[in-house]
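Obj: model holo form, ligand = glutathione.
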Amino acid sequence: MKLYYSAGSCSTSCHIALEESGLKYEAIGIDWDNDKDPNVGLVKKLNPLGTLPVFITDEGKVLNQNVGIHTYIADKARDKNLLPPVGTDERAEAYTWLGFINSDLHKSFGMLFAADSVSSDQAVKDQVKKYAVQKTKDYLAFLDDRLKGKDYLLGKTFTVADAYCFVVTNWAKWVDLPLDPYKNVQSYLGRVFERPSVQKVY
Ligand SMILES: N[C@@H](CCC(=O)N[C@@H](CS)C(=O)NCC(=O)O)C(=O)O
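Output (holo structure tokens):
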């Protein structure tokens, strides 16, 4: 299996998941800003949406969404418990977290990254930024509350949802959003950071 990713972006989380899985894989770093990188054109062909991650299974199937890729990796390495078994409440809980990270937290940070390009009008940019900052803070406060007394999102066991949550929440640094008010989030990030998989790829 092959992963195209760019360092620090959400696709890094798939890289962490692969490392946790112990599966054999190839990870190819993409430099979006380098037109001469032949993989930039290749990835855009493989994924017309123009986003990473792009993942190719050993059977040649192309996957281009975080949730699908994380699930695929976890299910290929069942012995590593990177997702709870199908049909359990815990599996549904893990998907609830993947949904929150993918369509709430990831997207509110995404809005912050995009705020400067939504308009040439500074007042509009400021308004978008204000809205996105508030949304992101609301999500971080929710996450902080839910992490109370837990090592990982599902309790004691690390799952692919933690890999994704770790990478996305760390974007707070990139947008100067202090994490000091979210003590549980801070200790959680420190805990995930210590994992050998994260040390190797992050
Ligand atoms: N819906 C996609 C979104 C992936 C996504 O937003 N990727 C970002 C990096 S975090 C990207 O490739 N952005 C490049 C761009 O939009 O030009 C998923 O969940 O996998």
